[in-house]
Design a protein that fits this description.
binds iron/sulfur cluster; 38% helix; two-stranded antiparallel sheet; Alpha-Beta Plaits; single chain; 3-stranded mixed β-sheet; 4 helices; globular; 123 residues
């Protein structure tokens, strides 16, 4: 009996987590490579672990799907070399559908635009 209750509670929790995951904000992160000095602050302090350092000592958006558009990175970057745009609900829905298709081997996983740029002028 106790096991059944636990399973039911677990199912409710999964449902709640699914809802909150679906409703959470999501961001698109872009790093401007020519402005970035590779200090690593964004990589170190991103609360979601979205960024990693590449072999050249520059941040890479390794896990874009984890970004919650909290804007910690773009408000603390000393060189204004990283920018985050909060995605519209339609964009999140489209990316989620594409990710599901990619998971089924039906389509490549995609990003909404480039995630790493060597350009310095365009923002
Ligand atoms: S905080 Fe800015 S300058 Fe430092 S690594 Fe990140 S993008 Fe580059
Ligand atoms: S906006 Fe927040 S979650 Fe997204 S990469 Fe920047 S620090 Fe990480």
């Amino acid at each position: 009996m106790a096991t059944e209750e636990t399973a039911e509670e677990s199912a409710v929790q999964v449902h709640k987590e699914g809802k909150s995951r679906a409703a959470r904000p999501r961001g698109h992160v872009k790093v401007f490579g020519t402005w970035c000095k590779g200090c690593g602050i964004c990589v170190e302090f991103c609360p979601q672990g979205v960024l990693t350092m590449d072999s050249q000592g520059r941040p890479v958006v390794a896990f874009p799907e984890k970004c919650t558009a909290c804007h910690w990175c773009d408000t603390h970057c000393p060189d204004l070399a990283i920018i985050v745009r909060r995605l519209e609900p339609e964009e999140v829905k489209e990316l989620t559908e594409l990710a599901e298709l990619a998971g089924q081997g039906a389509a490549p996983a995609v990003q909404p635009g480039p995630v790493h740029s060597q350009e310095g002028g365009e923002r």
